[in-house]
Amino acid sequence: MMSIILRRSSSYLAPKRALTAALSSTENVLYNNHPLPLQNGAVVPRDVGTMGFLARRDRGLDFHVKSGPLDFKAGRAWHAESAVDEYAVEDNKDDGLEISKLGISPEIVSALSRKGISKLFPIQKAVLEPAMQGRDMIGRARTGTGKTLAFGIPILDKIIQFNAKHGRGRNPLCLVLAPTRELAKQVDKEFQESAPGLDTICVYGGTPISSQMRALDYGVDVAVGTPGRIIDLIKRGALNLSEVQFVVLDEADQMLSVGFAEAVETILDKLPQKRQSMMFSATMPPWIRNLTHKYLKNPLTIDLVGESDQKLADGISLYSIASEMYAKASIVGPLITEHAKGGKCIVFTQTKRDADRLAYAMGRNYKCEPLHGDISQSQRERTLSGFRDGHFNILVATDVAARGLDVPNVDLVIHYELPNSSETFVHRTGRTGRAGKKGSAILMYSNEQTRAVRTIEQDVGCRFTELPRIAVEGGIGDMLSDMGGRPGSYGGMRDRRYGDMGFGRSSGMGDSGFGRSGGYRSSGSGRFSQGGDYGGSSSGRFGSYTNRPGNFSGPGSSRSGGFGNFGGNQSSWTGGGYGNSDSNPFGSFGKKQN
Ligand SMILES: Nc1ncnc2c1ncn2[C@@H]1O[C@H](COP(=O)(O)OP(=O)(O)OP(=O)(O)O)[C@@H](O)[C@H]1O
């Protein structure tokens, strides 16, 4: 404790000056997407003036405002700025800040350096100061640009400071909510690796609750988890949230749109009023702003995406290829060979069943594995680590893998079936081209889906390069037929009107059209209709396809790929893992019906 105080008191002015200068000299601040004039290279948020820091040496228990390595304190400038709703900073990857010069705890600096991280990414830079000041915030940045550490670094640093002063406690000081087990695990891992001296716990369904209860009893600094299991632990008296000072909703739009809203609210009700709340995602539909007043106090919006820009990370090449449904399975192999060039590839299907079937069929020629919510948790973990470690290079997954998953060096994403919304397209595609790397994504579509492809382009602000059609002579398509389907009917897209019906044009990415049947029902905004169908093609904007039971033409498959029965009584959830990840009693999202 002593050494930390000495370290801080002797050195904090220098790094603060460095941070101020660095921030001032590099950022191009946008306000409502109109660039503001830069004065002598300084940052000039509207009505803000310069970002003033007031030095403060006194640290109290209230570490929302007073504490932190740089002693950030809201000065007049920031109070003025709090009236500003939008605070957008243009993404610029070259502008990293030397983490070692920011006065962040040495433990974090050296842990990050072991991970090869020495400079802040833009979202981390933009978030650091207001987060240190204790501001509630909504953060949006493109996929793979480091949002986890954007909230992770300030929170971990503050906890280290707090523990140094007050000693370790039993109850968590930070709670991170994530919509899937895999994402929760990943956030937990990133926190652990970045601050190895802190105790973190990751809680989610599908694993024994008793060991999680024991670990909580022992004492933790940070709890990361999916909402259902967290509520379970609260009910059992094992998780006490009364000391939580920081709460983060990772993939916030997902969490609130797919049936976890009620669970999230139940959890937030258990937290102290005095806390710092943050929401992060690569996609922040406008409707989420209607909800934020429920969860956040006077939130600052830090938006590195903007409304007019393209929504994908730089460095991702986009291709589209037209294919009849029956031929898709046969051309996916050649596409992988050509575009993944031996590297890692994720193929996204709409249903668990299709993921199984395609992986099985492709397994005759390629090393690949399926991943979806009906696979046991232990197998899901084995599959993901096998993929990460390169034991196999092709993952055939439902949208359970679309959000947040950070597998380095995925070279190619294939949308074997159209995503159910432009947001899902962004998240699926974002599994490649992470942390500044290059990648490719290929969208497979049928003639009937041409309109849907154009809508994605419009929503996402991107342009697909059309690949030449690939002629099909037998191949995997036949294999799939061998497995019980009618030859030539795989996909049955002939009978569908996907794209013709209800493929609602949105007014842009993140339009409230998303989630038309997305399951969020408690906002009272009236924008969301019947819930629970997230993940099903029929639930997103792309698919208010009427039910046609007679169209079931595929090899026993349920809905995706044009197997019919869209919007009917067939299973709606395709990613399984969300609702599956916890015994989530809230909302209809995640019902396992297939
Ligand atoms: N400052 C940095 N320097 C180098 N690598 C970094 C830095 N910050 C984060 N990374 C790495 O970048 C990768 C992507 O980060 P992260 O998963 O947080 O992205 P994200 O923005 O949350 O993406 P998504 O929207 O898909 O969830 C991770 O492997 C992470 O370790």
Note down, in words, how this protein is organized.
Residues 1-94 and 481-594 have low confidence and may be disordered. This protein has helices at residues 2-11, 13-26, 76-81, 106-114, 122-132, 147-166, 181-194, 209-218, 227-235, 252-257, 261-269, 287-295, 325-339, 352-362, 377-388, 422-429, 450-460, 476-482, 577-580, and strands spanning 29-31, 34-35, 86-89, 137-140, 174-177, 200-203, 222-225, 246-250, 276-281, 300-303, 316-322, 344-348, 368-371, 394-397, 410-415, 439-445, 465-466. It is globular. The strands form two sheets. The protein has a ten-stranded mixed sheet with strand order 2-1-3-10-4-9-8-5-7-6, sandwiched between helices. A seven-stranded parallel sheet has the order 13-14-12-15-16-11-17, with helices on both faces. It has 594 residues and is an alpha/beta fold. It is built from 19 helices and 17 strands. The longest helix has 20 residues, at 147-166. The structure holds adenosine-5'-triphosphate. Residues 117, 119-121, 124, 141, 143-149, 282, 404, 406, 408, 430, 434-435 line the site of adenosine-5'-triphosphate (ATP).
Q: Can you give me a brief rundown of this structure?
A:
The protein is of the alpha/beta class and about 600 residues long.
Q: What is the secondary structure topology, with strand pairs?
A:
Blueprint: H1 2-11, H2 13-26, E1 29-31, E2 34-35, H3 76-81, E3 86-89, H4 106-114, H5 122-132, E4 137-140, H6 147-166, E5 174-177, H7 181-194, E6 200-203, H8 209-218, E7 222-225, H9 227-235, E8 246-250, H10 252-257, H11 261-269, E9 276-281, H12 287-295, E10 300-303, E11 316-322, H13 325-339, E12 344-348, H14 352-362, E13 368-371, H15 377-388, E14 394-397, E15 410-415, H16 422-429, E16 439-445, H17 450-460, E17 465-466, H18 476-482, H19 577-580
Parallel strand pairs: 3-10, 4-9, 4-10, 5-7, 5-8, 6-7, 8-9, 11-16, 11-17, 12-14, 12-15, 13-14, 15-16
Antiparallel strand pairs: 1-2, 1-3
Adenosine-5'-triphosphate (ATP) binds next to helix 6.
